[in-house]
Amino acid sequence: MELLKIGFLTITLVDVIDILLVTFIVYELYRGVRGTIAAQILVGLVIIVILSVLAQMVNMKAMGWILRTLTDIWVVAFIIIFQPEIRRMLSTIARNRLVRLFLRINVTESIEEISATALELSKKKQGALIIIARGTGMKSFTETGIILSAQISRSLLLSIFNPRSPLHDGAVIVNDRIIEAARCTLPLSATTRIGDLALGTRHRAGLGVTEQTDAVAVIVSEETGAVSIADNGELLYKISVKDLRKELRERLVLSVQRTVQNVKEAIRPQ
Q: Domain 108-261: which topology?
């Protein structure tokens, strides 16, 4: 469908969608590499491409051959160098509420059990790290731990995070109402400090997994008993159990319900 014609240039609806998609991808890539060493590497790759074009224009054969050889493998190098950023960008797409409309999420019972567990562990100052899966597959992380595939319950979570339990180190991964695995190893976030707060291994692991996936992490500090929640690479530190329950419900249930309602209203005949 033709939208606009300027001289010999014709702009169609497909062209607009194409431009918007490319813009979105470039923007997400920029967000992923901004402030990291990968941004400097990206600038270096762009400079090599520009120099290669200039060398060919002035017919510098030797320099042109060297730079052309480098540009021939830039796609492979791009994937290898920017692998963490590409994963983060794809995870950001999976976090989109519209995408999650097609994913089954039934965590109401899990929210209650996790909140009750966090309250008791906080009082005892026993550390915990509970990961609640959403759309992104967590298989690569569950495989690092002990597979349980057990119905979630406060008693089971308390048993896992008992300091005398062999499973208390690492993270528990919850999917819907099932504890998939315990003692899982998670990637550590590069963030070591937020303001005046120095992050320990447990908080960095909670942040790290939410930077790479769309999961939500509940963290209980064994030093202070503080309860925190991590989502989308951001940490909400030291919240009450009441607020924890509210935040989990907002992030895991209500956001999807609101999106469903908005979609229904958008397609409803006027």
A: YojJ-like (1 (3.40.1700)
